[in-house]
Design goal:
By secondary structure, the protein is mainly alpha-helical. The protein contains 8 helices and 4 strands; from the N terminus they run ββαααββααααα. The strands form 2 sheets. Strands 1-2 form a two-stranded antiparallel sheet. A two-stranded antiparallel ribbon has the order 3-4.
Length: 286
């Protein structure tokens, strides 16, 4: 996202959608978004470790309160999504970490020194990680690989996991067609998660850059409303990302558990002895 204090050009506002090389390490080009993503990851790790060591039963004020609210909020979200609370507690830390990583990257992109604040040549030295499609695709890919792996593990195997795509009777000619279409649609979730996050962050970056350019010397004032809006949007997009990824895992796990319960009930019914039509001998006592 563009900073409030930015450099202006006579031709118009500076908008950088694609990442640019910031430095070279051992023959590898490190882009400005990756560089800032590393910085955000280091800050996130430090923040969560610090919060974990100082967390108490009674809430505290300051940054620790923000962490505790986020952990409780996303933790309750995950707990409500799963029928089995033991499974929810197992995977809640992963979704909480994803939430903080995204929201922190979104908010750190609003700092004045990000974007046009510092430049290396003609390109910004730092760009938000979630403002790069490569970055959001990496987050989406990691999330969905985790969701698939956890779904297969909780389902008891690949075959049992694939069963939740096929609903209804196999005698129905649409049974297999709909199942295959559901599987293909499921594979597009990586793209949908990454594009949704990238486009919202990029559009916010462009809006701030345009209104900062229009304001010139009053850029902090003209861009301030959109910066405040992006604080809300950044939090909302992190929440939506976690909600969707949680639902993807919960649907597969809950469906598998329902099938297992249904099979167990049917097996119990089949094991019941037949008692209908049994007559007692004359004179027999109950």
């Amino acid at each position: 996202m563009a900073p409030l204090l930015m450099r202006f050009a006579d031709s118009g506002p500076a908008v950088h959608v694609a990442p640019a090389g910031a430095l070279h390490l051992w023959g590898w080009t490190i882009t400005n978004s990756i560089l800032y993503g590393w910085a955000a990851t280091l800050l996130l790790t430090t923040l969560l470790v610090w919060a974990a060591k100082r967390a108490t039963v009674r809430p505290k004020r300051g940054p620790l309160q923000f962490v505790e609210i986020g952990v409780e909020f996303i933790g309750n979200l995950v707990m409500n999504a799963f029928d089995d609370k033991k499974v929810a507690r197992k995977y809640a830390p992963v979704f909480i970490t994803i939430f903080f990583f995204i929201i922190l990257n979104n908010w750190l992109g609003l700092l004045p020194f990000v974007g046009e604040g510092f430049q290396r040549g003609d390109n910004p030295l730092l760009r938000p990680f979630t403002g790069d499609l490569n970055g959001t695709f990496a987050i989406g890919l990691f999330t969905m690989v985790f969701v698939y792996a956890a779904s297969i593990k909780e389902s008891g195997g690949v075959i049992k996991y694939l069963r939740h795509f096929f609903i209804g009777s196999p005698k129905n000619p649409l049974f297999f067609i709909i199942g295959v279409l559901e599987m293909l649609t499921d594979l597009t979730r990586v793209v949908s998660l990454s594009l949704r996050l990238f486009l919202n962050v990029s559009i916010g970056e462009i809006l701030i850059a345009v209104f900062a350019y229009l304001g010139h010397v009053a850029a902090p004032l003209t861009a301030l409303p959109f910066t405040l809006l992006e604080i809300f949007v950044g939090a909302l997009q992190a929440y939506i990302f976690v909600v969707l990824s949680t639902m993807y895992l919960a649907i597969a796990v809950n469906h598998t558990q329902h099938d297992a319960e249904h099979d167990a009930e049917r097996l119990t019914e089949d094991d019941q002895p037949e008692t209908i039509g049994v007559s007692h001998p004359a004179g027999a006592k109950g």
